[in-house]
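Q: Could you write out the predicted structure for this multi-component system? I'm mainly interested in how the pieces pack against one another.
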Amino acid sequence: MTTPQANLPLPIGIITISDRAYRGEYEDKGGPGIIAALSELLETPWQPVAIIVPDEQELIENALIDLADHKQCSLILTTGGTGPAIRDITPEATEAVCQKMMPGFGELMRIASLKEVPTAILSRQTAGIRGQSLIINLPGKPSAIRTCLDAVFAAIPYCLDLIGGYRIETNPTFCKSFRPKS
Amino acid sequence: MTTPQANLPLPIGIITISDRAYRGEYEDKGGPGIIAALSELLETPWQPVAIIVPDEQELIENALIDLADHKQCSLILTTGGTGPAIRDITPEATEAVCQKMMPGFGELMRIASLKEVPTAILSRQTAGIRGQSLIINLPGKPSAIRTCLDAVFAAIPYCLDLIGGYRIETNPTFCKSFRPKS
Amino acid sequence: MTTPQANLPLPIGIITISDRAYRGEYEDKGGPGIIAALSELLETPWQPVAIIVPDEQELIENALIDLADHKQCSLILTTGGTGPAIRDITPEATEAVCQKMMPGFGELMRIASLKEVPTAILSRQTAGIRGQSLIINLPGKPSAIRTCLDAVFAAIPYCLDLIGGYRIETNPTFCKSFRPKS
């Protein structure tokens, strides 16, 4: 992975996965929800590299691969497609392109979401590592996106350090990130 | 899946998985434990479609497939065979017949059971989707069955909606189910 | 598995997985950390069967197989190699040699570690059964090792009973183990 130029904002991949949003029948609320959350959580300058894809496994995989391998996105967040319905295929696409799965992210995001709705257990969201990129599945609804990001964000900067991704700093007003002393 | 006739009670699959219960050396307590729990949790009229099978992966898979594909059971509950012993093979049989796994069910059922016994982590119980059916593994003991069903039942009606299964209503005295506004 | 002689201390496998410790560039703290914890947690006489291997999947698998199949270790604990970095491959090696995975161990160890550091979700530690042996992945740092063992140890004696391993008793000052009445 080429390191982004030092004076440019870091690219963060944001993939909205929704048949209806892709066809324009439905306004994408997940992508803007992620952007709004990151605007508070991150102190390091960043820019979204956003794309909307339908619930098709091959298209989701292609988008993940492009952002990880060609667009220098050490952090890639998806929204949508994690439920039990037949078209919900985001976790399978994520697993297919990752070398390592990170079960702790999905577990903790479900525990955090359960405090809000009992249907949180229906989310199959997961996370994994592809090369020097961390991919995290988020729910479709903006309020649920924020709950999930708040639950796991403190661990993301150190995770990116460990996989050789770019260095990010969080905004301590919204998230106290943690880097253990080695 | 053919929708059950409107005036008939909904069929719910109940599979007791136990070598000893199958051979008649041991009274099946898991199946009756599930029936007793559902009698309180469900308001919608229902009827059990119950079967006892030994701890043989192929026989468990056949029973799951029959209840899901031919017996119109949108909800299938198993009891037994989720531990670490060599004959405990229920989770593997479940995964083999499901198109999608639902990790949140097992995670939450273990967390709930841990409040009662520290050996709850030895349960490998899981859940998954086959077609328009939700399959959930439950423990063998009636008290543990109830703990697990109480933990996850509020999410089951909406899950069945999402996969195109039959519509069920819970008895609010025992379980407040939750259907998010779409 | 041959049962160890009744008058000999039970062998417990301890594998330190670290490129730097293997090359002698780094003092192994994980292995001694496990030994210190077990010295308090166990009442049954035991002896460590300890080995240091680099982060190479085949070498980790060979060490696990040797301890399980030839060294009579019904309990095998690993330390290190569970993170997201490219060389961290311990969970994959563990899964490759196990017939059954035990997801409840990793889930609970992450929940317990989260009370100490938010980066606990980065640990991919898991557990599984090979034959009559229980294999559990632990973190690399001694303080995290103890947190994880304290979280799950009460369930280990009964797990070993269920898989036909040796019988161990815990020291009730440090751990109240639990064996359900069958």
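A: Regarding packing and overall arrangement: Chain A has a mean pLDDT of 96.
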